[in-house]
Amino acid sequence: MSAELRELTAADALGRIESGELSPDELFDAHAEAIAGEELNAYLWRAEPGAAANGAADGPLRGVPVAVKDLFCTEGIATTAGSRILEGYRPPYTATAVERLTAAGARVVGKTNMDEFAMGSSNENSGYGPVLNPWDRSRVPGGSSGGSAAAVAGRLTPWAIGTDTGGSIRQPAALCGIVGLKPTYGAISRYGMVAFASSLDQCGPLTRTVADAAILLRAMEGRDPCDSTSVGIPGGVELPSRTDLAGLRLGVARDFSHHAEGVEPGVAEAFERALETIAEAGGEIVDVELPHASHGISAYYVIAPAEASANLARYDGVRFGLRADGDGDLVTMYERTRSEGFGAEVKRRIMLGTYALSSGYYDAYYGRAQRVRTRIVEDFARAFEVCDLIVTPTSPSVAFELGAKAADPLAMYLSDYFTVPMSLAGIPAISIPAGLAEPAGGGPELPVGLQVAAPAFAETLLLDAAHALEGAIGFEGKP
Amino acid sequence: MARGAAVLERYEPVIGLEIHVQLQTRTKMFCGCELSFGDEPNVHTCPICLGHPGTLPVTNEQAIKFALEIALALRCEIAPRSIFHRKNYFYPDLPKGYQISQYDIPLASDGELAGVRIHRVHLEEDAAKLSHVGASGRIHGSGASLVDFNRGGTPLVEIVTEPDLRDAAAARSWLQLLRTTIRQIGASDVNMEEGSLRCDANVSLRPVGRDELGTKTELKNMNSFRFLERGIEAEIARQAGMLDAGEAVAQDTLHFDPRAGSLTSLRSKEYAHDYRYFPEPDLVPVAPTEEMIAAARAALPELPADRRRRYESELGLSEKVATQLAFDADLAGYFERAIAPGSAEPVTVANWITGELAARLREAGDGGAGPAGSRVEPEAIAALAGMVERKEISTGAGRRVLAVLVAEGGDPATIVEREGLGGMDDSGELEAAVAAAIEADPAAAERVREGNVKAIGPLVGHVMRETKGRADGGEVTRLIRERLGVG
Amino acid sequence: MIDREQVLHVARLARLELSGEEVERMSSELSGILDHVERIGELDLDGVEPTSHVVALENVLRPDEPRPSLPRDRALEGAPDPSEGSFRVPSPAA
Ligand SMILES: [Mg+2]
Ligand SMILES: [Zn+2]
């Protein structure tokens, strides 16, 4: 019985609760119990079964449980950002996005594991151990929102929220065979979301259907006086209803999507099949150019670490979190606290960002990267003059084996190749399952994601098209 | 050590100031915590000003308004679009590990106040308060410090001048003018002792007549106007001593110790800084609209510099007196009230206030309260000045009335009545007094007749005594000479 | 290419204590990443404005109205070394 309940999409559950067939507490406990015994290491904090009292069942989300990436501050509930430096930290306040969800009637069923400070594409950088991919536990779920993706795919929550800075929602969604949406920068408040790269970070839903993603987005989007850069989505978000792509022009940028390094054959085939499906569904495929998108990774791995190097300076052992003994010396205390508290990838990016901003290097790195970013913004603007949406693969590869890229940071960074340009441009992009493909090294087939991007604040169009495409592809796979 | 005056004959000091002003907003620069002074530690903090994970800054509207008013008062150009940067460095009083400040595009620049050019005016957030509490009992026991974040995040306006000041006294009086100006705007209580006005000075010397600048040093911790002046004087002397000895002045940051009057270098303690400034991604640009600027301009009261100009051009006051009145907000208010009824010429009133009255109050030891703080109502001093101006009473009588006013206040006319100090309308009375004086001292009268002019003194004195100083000295002398036939 | 000395300088700026082995690894890894990043050096970016915000917003201001501060015990909760209602730290080199 409880297993069946965990098969329900959020929309189905909402329908049943509305019609009185299902009690929200029953639904909550079904998940809380499953989470208590989960073996994916997807959760860092778990609500007690029977603790459904945390949040009333009224409001449009009717008490449906939601999993929250541990990057969101939750008052009185441990928030680690996947880092040892925040072990035992209990925030004195709650993130706006989470507050909106609970105000709408959702109940937080757990907080999900993640790459430390959202830095990673495999979830192997968590200070609390890697998350396992429910499709194949010897493989990664992707990252940095790997815990949320694995939990949704593994039926450990109907839906979850995560954050996406360069692909951290879309890539794990692709590797776990679910839907992941990165909204337009500014659509959802960043207040209470532990910062990685402030000009890129954006909160978004990870769900099993496009419709569920629309419901969650709707509940969270909106201007927040606590976030100067938040605007919400002008005109709001319509729930998707399209059943075909008639009249829509979907752009393919071959200069970008076909020049990626190390795209697995299975991924390339799945992408070509998706293009055929688009045509069958009445969509028009048009060629567009994104001449600078292939430089996205380079720009991103200067801008994001630079902002991160400042955002992570507050972890200094003075006001909260870990403090190491500095033998009475302040600088020693700082250096030991940060060296013991941060993991290897976080240190690497702090070093990279500090270097890129240091005197003598700013112009060559940060300054140039910001100009490349301008070019990428212009590329998309030009492309959207001749198409309504742009499609690419979400990730060059399917889920890879644990440890496969751990030794090669650059190879890991390149798994963000397709997702980073949209982040730099601040435009919305969604990943939906495009089918299954055999991994490069052989073995059972694994999910492949299709990324669809739209102009800024065109979420309603994006979700509507993705919904139609979802139907046309008809992906039925589950772990 | 080289002596002050002599030094200035050989070297020309070149001085620039860097001023930090705490704004008098209700809340902090980027969060809703109330500003406070002297409260219990850490009772005005929130997740934002403690730099908790996930928090974001939101700019205080009033801080922008005050900053615009200050910028306009300093005749600056307002940047059409200014942005905030992050200034990165680690220090316990800096919760985020960076200070949100303005860097390459400040809110305003290129201004001027009383002949000193303003390089830039920008907004930033203040650091927290760090106090040393002695040995912490840790292994090395280098001591511990306590951090109080009440002050952290207070809005600051930083004002940087061009090096247009030429001596310590000028730096002091210019800073006093800046303080009056900002206090008048109501943007800050600008109190150096409490730290709401802080001033660092850049000092360099060059041989008189040369244009190229010498190496400059930066002086910190001069938390009173007196210390600012003494600190700069000490540094001028120090540099002159080095130059005289043929040594090169090294670029340095110096700490002024008021007690010892000495300067100690801070450089040794500083780790070479690289602030890695970059645009603050959590904030959007500040682009003052026409409305915002117009509103700020409209909110400006008459400022000391303009007031001095008006006193000179419209009221005909001397530059010295005009400056004395205009640059002191309280005194200016007192003067304005005094001339309001029009009971005397503004020049006369101004001279009485800055001359006789100021002097009396000093004698009376008023503790620097000045006219505004005295018993003498502005209307009273004006009335008194008027009576003397119209020769209704003599200057001497005027002084005596003033003495009473200073002691117990009141209305001059009443005092003149009471003390019978009124002028002598019927000259008969004076005639009689003169006759009586000659009667009383025939010897003196005789010597005057013989042409000994000095001998007239005692006779005049006699008349003045008789008339209790009401008589006009000049008139008395004329009458005596007339009677003794030495016209 | 970023050498050992640069790594140590940057680590000092970032307040990170790196072991000798970490310094070596950091030097080679950062060099590898920077080689890739430096491809943007090939692009002609003359006259291109830098982008630091993608949101076209200006003058997002907050009214100067007080909001409740934290009770002091909440502010100090989780502080590594609270003392006398304050946050205690080793004194900065004086
Ligand atoms: Mg400053
Ligand atoms: Zn605060």
How would you briefly describe this protein structure?
The complex is a heterotrimer of chains A (479), B (487) and C (94). With 479 residues, chain A is of the alpha/beta class. Chain A has 16 helices and eleven strands.
Can you describe this structure?
- The complex is a heterotrimer of chains A (479), B (487) and C (94).
- Chain A is α/β, with parallel strands linked by helices.
- Chain A contains 16 helices and eleven strands.
- Chain A has an eleven-stranded mixed β-sheet, sandwiched between helices.
- The two termini of chain A are 19 Å apart.
- Chain B has 487 residues and is α+β, with helices and mostly antiparallel strands.
- Chain B has a nine-stranded mixed β-sheet.
- Chain C is 35% helix and 10% strand.
- In chain C, α1 packs across α2.
- Chains B and C meet through β2, α2, β9 and β15 of B and β1, α3 and β3 of C.
- β2 of chain B pairs parallel with β1 of chain C.
- Bound molecules: magnesium ion and zinc ion (ZN).
- Zinc ion binds next to loops of chain B.
Task: Record keyword descriptors for this entry.
heterotrimer, A: 479 residues, alpha/beta, 35% helix, C: 94 residues, 3 helices, binds magnesium ion, binds zinc ion
Strand and helix layout:
The complex is a heterotrimer of chains A (479), B (487) and C (94).
Chain A: H1 2-5, H2 10-18, H3 24-36, E1 43-46, E2 65-69, H4 96-103, E3 107-112, H5 146-153, E4 160-164, H6 170-176, E5 179-182, E6 202-207, H7 210-220, E7 249-252, H8 254-257, H9 265-280, E8 284-287, H10 296-311, H11 330-341, H12 344-357, H13 363-383, E9 389-393, H14 409-413, H15 420-425, E10 429-437, E11 446-453, H16 459-473
Parallel strand pairs in A: 2-3, 2-4, 7-8, 7-9
Antiparallel strand pairs in A: 1-3, 4-6, 5-6, 5-10, 9-11, 10-11
Helix pairs in contact in A: 5-6, 7-16, 10-12, 10-13
Chain B: H1 4-10, E1 11-22, E2 59-60, H2 61-73, E3 77-78, E4 85-88, E5 98-101, E6 108-113, E7 116-125, E8 129-132, E9 144-148, E10 155-161, H3 168-185, E11 197-207, E12 217-220, H4 225-244, E13 252-257, E14 262-265, E15 278-279, H5 290-299, H6 304-313, H7 319-326, H8 329-339, H9 346-363, H10 378-389, H11 395-408, H12 412-419, H13 427-440, H14 442-449, H15 456-466, H16 473-483
Parallel strand pairs in B: 12-13
Antiparallel strand pairs in B: 1-10, 1-11, 3-6, 4-5, 4-15, 6-7, 7-10, 8-9, 11-12, 13-14
Helix pairs in contact in B: 2-5, 3-4, 6-7, 8-10, 9-10, 9-11, 10-11, 13-15, 13-16, 15-16
Chain C: H1 4-13, H2 20-37, E1 61-62, H3 72-76, E2 82-83, E3 86-90
Antiparallel strand pairs in C: 2-3
Helix pairs in contact in C: 1-2
Bound molecules: magnesium ion and zinc ion.
